[in-house]
Write a structure and sequence with these properties.
The protein is an alpha/beta fold. The protein is about 30% helix and about 15% strand. The chain has two domains: about 5-215, Uncharacterised protein PF07075, DUF1343 (Rossmann fold), CATH 3.40.50.12170; about 225-360, Aspartate Aminotransferase, domain 1 (Alpha-Beta Complex), CATH 3.90.1150. Strand 5, helix 4 (about 120-135) and strand 6 form a beta-alpha-beta unit.
Length: about 400
C-alpha cells in the first residue's frame, strides 16, 4: 500500500470548523496526489471550501524558473481566473493585500530534507503573515525523501539567519514539513490557528523510493532522489567558485572547476575514507551558471550505501580538498546571495562562520564533524524530538 500524503486524504481529514472557508493554496510542481493529480485541480472541486488564490515559492507554482535566485512575478491563472501571488520576488512574505480574500492558507510543498531548501522558509513566512492577519494554516504533510532517522550538520546560529535558514535547524534535519512547521508554530507562533493533516503509512526508516509515490521534481535542479541525497552537502558549493553541477544533467552529483585536475582531487578525497561513496574523475561543461561553456575538471559522486553515506561531511570534504590543492584560487563566492548583502554565502549556508574558518586554518575533517554532530545531537534532545509525528 503506497504512502498516503496529506493531499491524498485531505477530503476525509479536513478540519470541520474550517468548513466553508475561503482558502489560499501554496503549491509547486510536486504538489500532486498519488495519481499525479495536482492540488490546484483537486481543490477547485472540493465543496467544503472555496479556493480564492494561489501562492508560489521559489521557481513558481509550476517550476517556471529554471535557475536559482531568479525572481518571478505574480499573474492570473488562465484555467481558473484566480490570482497567483509570487513569494519569490519583491516579497517573500505574503502581504496583507494577498491575504484579504482568504481565511485559511493551505501549504502543500514537497521538501527534500535540507535546511537550505527554501520551501520550508516560505512556509514559515506564510505562518508569520497568517498569524498577523488572523488567518488559519493547514499543512498537508509529505515524506522527507531522506527518511527521518539521520540528522547531520551544523545547527543554524541565528547570527547567520537568512532565506536559506531562518531558524535553528541542522542541515540534514530528518523531519517532515509538517514536523518542521509544528516546531515553528510551538516555538515562535504560539497564537496561530494551525493544523497538520498527517500522512498514512509513512515511517522514519522510509526513503522516498520505498513510499510507492512517484518522484516529481520539486524544483528544476532536483531531478532525482539521488540529487536530494547528496544535496545536504553539495549545496555548500553554491557558496564557492566551484560548479555544483548546475547546467548539467546531474546537478549536485557532479562538481568541479576549470582549474581542477580530476585524478588529483579524487585521490585526495579517497584519503578521507568517506563512507558509502565513490568519486569518479570526470570532465564536464556546464551549459549555464558557473563556468558556463567552459571545460571543468572534477568528479561525480556515486553513492554505494545510502544508509552509511554522510552528505554534509562529503560536501565539507570536497571544500577542504579544493582549498588544500588549489590555494592560489579564492574559494569563497562573494556577495550577494539569496537576498543577503552582508554575510558571506558560505557562512549563511553553513549557518555559521566556523566551517569556513576551520577549512581556512586546515582543521581536520573528523574534528570538524565532531563539533557539528554534537550540535545536532543537542538539538534533537532539546527541540526536535518533541515535534516528531511519526515512529
Amino acid at each position: 500500500m503506497p504512502v498516503q500524503t496529506g493531499l491524498d486524504i485531505f477530503e476525509k481529514k479536513w478540519p470541520e470548523r474550517l468548513k466553508s472557508s475561503r482558502v489560499g493554496l501554496l503549491v509547486h510542481p510536486a504538489s500532486v496526489n498519488r495519481r499525479l493529480e495536482h492540488a490546484s485541480g483537486l481543490f477547485m472541486k472540493f465543496r467544503k471550501f472555496q479556493l480564492k488564490a494561489f501562492f508560489g515559492p521559489q521557481h513558481g507554482i509550476r517550476g517556471e524558473t529554471q535557475d536559482n535566485m531568479i525572481e518571478w512575478k505574480g499573474f492570473t491563472d488562465k484555467q481558473t481566473g484566480l490570482p497567483v501571488y509570487s513569494l519569490y520576488s519583491d516579497t517573500r512574505k505574503p502581504e496583507p493585500s494577498m491575504l484579504k480574500d482568504i481565511d485559511v492558507m493551505i501549504i502543500d510543498l514537497q521538501d527534500i530534507g535540507s535546511r537550505y531548501y527554501t520551501f520550508i522558509w516560505t512556509a514559515e513566512l506564510c505562518m508569520q503573515a497568517c498569524l498577523e492577519a488572523g488567518k488559519s494554516v493547514v499543512i498537508l504533510d509529505r515524506p522527507n525523501p531522506l527518511g527521518g532517522k539521520h540528522v547531520e550538520g551544523a545547527v543554524l546560529d541565528m547570527n547567520y539567519a537568512s532565506f536559506v535558514g531562518q531558524r535553528p535547524l541542522p542541515v540534514r534535519h530528518g523531519m517532515t514539513i509538517g514536523e518542521i512547521c509544528s516546531y515553528f508554530k510551538n516555538e515562535f507562533y504560539t497564537g496561530l490557528d494551525f493544523h497538520v493533516i498527517p500522512m498514512h503509512g509513512w515511517n522514519r526508516k522510509m526513503w522516498f523510493d520505498q513510499t510507492g509515490l512517484s518522484w516529481v521534481l520539486p524544483s528544476p535542479n532536483m531531478p532525482t532522489l539521488n540529487t536530494a541525497i547528496v544535496y545536504p552537502g553539495m549545496c555548500l558549493l553554491e557558496g564557492t567558485i566551484l560548479s555544483e553541477g548546475r547546467g548539467t544533467t546531474r546537478p549536485f552529483e557532479i562538481f568541479g572547476a576549470p582549474f581542477i585536475e580530476p585524478d588529483t582531487i579524487v585521490k585526495r578525497l579517497d584519503e578521507f575514507k568517506l563512507p558509502g561513496v565513490i568519486f569518479r574523475p570526470m570532465y564536464f561543461q556546464p551549459t549555464f551558471q558557473k563556468h558556463s561553456d567552459k571545460s571543468c575538471g572534477g568528479a561525480q559522486i556515486h553513492i554505494t550505501n545510502r544508509e552509511r553515506f554522510k552528505p554534509f561531511k562529503t560536501g565539507v570534504a570536497i571544500l577542504k580538498a579544493a582549498s588544500e590543492l588549489y590555494p592560489e584560487y579564492a574559494l569563497w563566492k562573494q556577495l550577494p546571495y539569496e537576498y543577503e548583502q552582508m554575510k558571506m554565502p558560505i557562512d549563511i549556508l553553513a549557518g555559521t562562520d566556523r566551517l569556513r574558518r576551520d577549512i581556512e586554518r586546515g582543521e581536520g575533517l573528523n574534528i570538524m564533524e565532531e563539533g557539528w554532530q554534537e550540535q545536532s545531537r543537542q538539538f534533537h534532545k532539546d527541540v526536535r524530538k518533541r515535534f516528531l509525528i511519526y515512529e
